[in-house]
Amino acid sequence: MGGRTARRLATRLGELECNVVDALPEGAAPELAVILCHGFGAPATDLVPLAPELMSVEASLADRVRFIFPGAPLTLAEWGMPAGRAWFHLPEAIMRGQLRDWDLFAREVPPGLPAARRAMMSVVDAVSTSTKLPYGRIVLGGFSQGGMVTTDVALRLEEAPAGLCILSGTLTSEAEWRQKAQARKGLPVFQAHGRDDTVLPFSAAERLRDVLTESGLAVDFHPFDGPHTIDSEELERLAAFLLARLGGR
């Protein structure tokens, strides 16, 4: 990172409170914006430490990229998680780790997803305006439920984003996603998932990968031996994916 310390700013972008992190030289404009959304039940700041970690893996990201971490709009205080946030409410069976019908979950549009989509689209618009970057210079991504929301948004924006990162996400809204994906042929996607994930099954991640590849998206699929988490090799692959969106070194 060239000896510079990453700066962090809490601000509102569109409808959501966000944390913005970069280590750009003073007065420099970002060449790429990366919006990463946390998972269900996590605090709004859960993924913020990823920014300096990614900059450490690929130093040139520090000179050229601004990271944005939106906080989900819903509170989970009623579930005993006062700091926990959610993009949309999940079936109680998932909350208790008892969901068995993942085929049904893949086919249905979760109640609350359209509202989360609108909120995220407002963030993307605000990031584009504030950075003067077109959608084609903005990467969307997220972990778990954050990956579901950003997949939905990436397939629906008026113009294609620079890329999509799905970290331990899963398939939902299958018919709609298949239809929307037809306009995203060639979109670079980095998808990673643990084979031992007991929260969102690995088989469902494979099904999502197949839906995207069959629609013509360019999916770099990274399976790893681990649970519902982000592993070290995945972080390295993600940094390389972001560097590629910048056009290399």
**End-to-end separation:** 14 Å
Helicity, as a percent range: 25-40%
What structural class results from the helix and strand content?
alpha/beta
Oligomer: single chain
* Poorly predicted parts: none
Short description:
With 249 residues, this protein is an alpha/beta fold. Helix content is 35%, strand content 24%.
Helices, strands, pairings?
Blueprint lengths: L6 E7 L2 E7 L9 E6 L12 H8 L2 H5 E6 L3 E3 L4 E6 L5 H4 L6 H6 L5 H19 L6 E6 L1 H10 L8 E5 L6 H8 L6 E7 L7 H13 L3 E7 L7 H14 L4
Parallel strand pairs: 3-4, 3-7, 7-8, 8-9, 9-10
Antiparallel strand pairs: 1-2, 2-4, 5-6
How would you sum up this structure, described in words?
This protein is α/β, with parallel strands linked by helices. Helix content is 35%, strand content 24%. It is built from 9 helices and 10 strands. Strand 8 (163-167), helix 7 (174-181) and strand 9 (188-194) form a beta-alpha-beta unit. Helix 5 (113-131) packs across helix 6. The two termini are 14 Å apart. The model has no long low-confidence stretch (mean pLDDT 93).
